[in-house]
Write a structure and sequence with these properties.
Strand order of the largest sheet of chain A: 2-1-5-4-3
CATH topology of the largest domain in chain A: Beta-Lactamase
Radius of gyration of chain A: 20 Å
Radius of gyration of chain B: 17 Å
CATH class of chain B: Alpha Beta
Shape of chain A: elongated
Oligomer: heterodimer
Strand content of chain B: 15-25%
CATH class of the largest domain in chain A: Alpha Beta
Structural class of chain B: alpha+beta
CATH architecture of the largest domain in chain A: 2-Layer Sandwich
Number of helices of chain A: 10
Shape of chain B: globular
CATH superfamily of chain B: Gcn5-related N-acetyltransferase (GNAT)
Number of strands of chain A: 5
Largest interface: A-B, 46 and 40 residues
CATH topology of chain B: Aminopeptidase
Chain lengths: 240, 220
């Protein structure tokens, strides 16, 4: 049961699974299992796909439903997609405005045994490409459940997007450019200093030290600071 | 009240956004003398076309704007990083989900006075930061990167905000511009509410407002 597992464990497990999974679709399936969700979907905004004609959507929804969804062009009325791509802040599906056309769509989904609650995370990358990662589940106390994992899901959504970009464009991760401050924070962490000590040494607030370390960790694509230090050492960007 | 306006609501709230863009022209172009693009008496730039989130402070009838701010995720293109990088390349580089930038924060002192809100400019700015932080907390944002004039740091700190100055730059206008990281935590929000004497009801109203939307239905 998910309740007996620590959020950190689930996050780190999901993080490494996303990196190692053979495809975005496989990564979504693993995450679904980890978080005991019904379904997960990664959807790249069509406005950014110029090199490919086809749609880039990866999902754990049953193939029969995906086929029906595409054939009936539900994408054009699904509120999660239509309104979701306009949003930048993560949102609960119940916040979405339901148009008349969407009522029939939602009924059809229900008739196919789909439904439940949803939470979607809009992703924007440095090239202004936008994607949406949607979490669908039927846990009780959905809002509380989401609140528990929200920040982890937001970060994992960005990792899924990065994987999708690799899958789609074959972009490989270049050696990340870390700023002097990020390098300093990593350097002191590599010498065993915690956030508090790093903050004191550098004369910055603890919160900011934490931010620099997070920023460095994300640029290095790592799930935690220990991993980030190991990678930074391997890449020879720090030499404590 | 404070409302967030995102791209799907731009047309529904165009009258408030218009007031906000006009206010930005008045504040940033006219008053502070920044070299910002102005058209039709409004100040907008390329970041406004990237579907940012606006936090607007307006009257209960959603007719008069008292203030506004624009915020965007630092994982995407951001103004401060682009602009400040030229001036001091190493200061502003925090980029992560959960870290957002807030720019073009301004208040309309005339509108505030006309509506007899009896709020000083310092308090008005502080309330905006509090509302922004509360909104951030709801959405997994733990740090706001924002720019401000040097004297504002004292105002914000007096209001209970935790700011780390990341750097400052000259050459924008009459005064240097600071860039700082604001901590967004439950503790800081609580402390700001206490310091500003904002009661629980204000908080509830404002959080409800993030979600309050006409025509809201339960999704199946």
């Amino acid at each position: 049961m998910i309740d007996s597992l620590s959020p950190v464990y689930l996050f780190e497990k999901s993080h490494s699974q996303i990196e190692q999974a053979e495809s975005v679709e496989a990564a979504l399936a693993l995450m679904r299992e980890n978080y005991e969700l019904d379904n997960l979907t990664y959807h790249l905004s069509q406005t950014v796909i110029s090199k490919v004609d086809s749609l880039y959507v990866r999902t754990t929804y049953p193939a029969a439903w995906v086929g029906r969804y595409l054939m009936r062009n539900y994408m054009a009325i699904d509120p999660v997609v239509v309104e979701g791509f306009e949003r930048s802040l993560p949102f609960f599906w119940e916040e979405l405005r339901i148009t008349e056309a969407a009522v029939n769509f939602l009924q059809d989904a229900k008739d196919h045994g789909l439904g439940g609650n949803g939470y979607s995370v809009p992703v924007t990358d440095k090239f202004a490409r936008r994607a949406l990662v949607s979490f669908n589940g039927s846990k009780e106390n959905w809002r509380e459940f989401v609140a528990n994992f929200r920040n982890d899901w937001i970060e994992l959504s960005h990792r899924i997007h990065a994987k999708a970009m690799r899958e789609l464009y074959g972009e490989d991760d270049p050696v990340p450019v870390l700023s002097p401050r990020e390098l300093e924070c990593l350097h002191w962490s590599a010498l065993g200093k915690d956030h508090k000590a790093v903050a004191i040494i550098l004369g910055i607030s603890e919160h900011t030290a934490r931010d620099y370390l997070k920023s460095a960790r994300i640029k290095l694509g790592c799930a935690n600071i220990a991993q980030a230090i190991a990678k930074a050492l391997k890449l020879r960007v720090i030499s404590p | 009240m404070f409302i967030t306006v995102q791209a799907h609501q731009f047309s529904a709230y165009s009258h408030l956004l218009d007031q906000y863009f006009k206010l930005r022209k008045k504040v940033f172009a006219d008053h502070l003398g920044w070299a910002v693009p102005v058209e039709d008496g409004k100040e907008t730039d390329r970041y406004d076309r990237l579907k940012p989130v606006y936090l607007l402070w307006c009257d209960e009838n959603l007719q008069t704007l008292f203030g506004g701010v624009r915020f965007m995720p630092t994982t995407g293109p951001t103004l401060l990083y682009d602009v400040f990088r030229k001036t001091f390349p190493n200061a502003v580089e925090l980029r992560a989900p959960g870290i957002w930038e807030a720019t073009r924060l301004c208040i309309d002192e005339d509108a505030i006075q006309q509506h007899e809100l009896k709020i000083t400019a310092a308090r008005a700015f502080s309330l905006m930061i509090l509302a922004l932080s509360e909104c951030g907390l709801e959405h997994g944002i733990h740090t706001l990167i924002s720019n401000y004039e040097p004297q504002m740091a004292r105002v914000y700190r007096r209001a209970g905000a935790c700011i780390q100055e990341l750097g400052r730059a000259d050459g924008f206008g009459r005064l240097p511009v600071c860039c700082g990281a604001f901590e967004v935590t439950t503790e800081v929000c609580q402390f700001m509410r206490e310091t500003l004497g904002v009661d629980e009801s204000f908080y509830r109203t404002s959080t409800q407002t993030w979600f309050a939307q006409p025509l809201m239905l339960e999704a199946a």
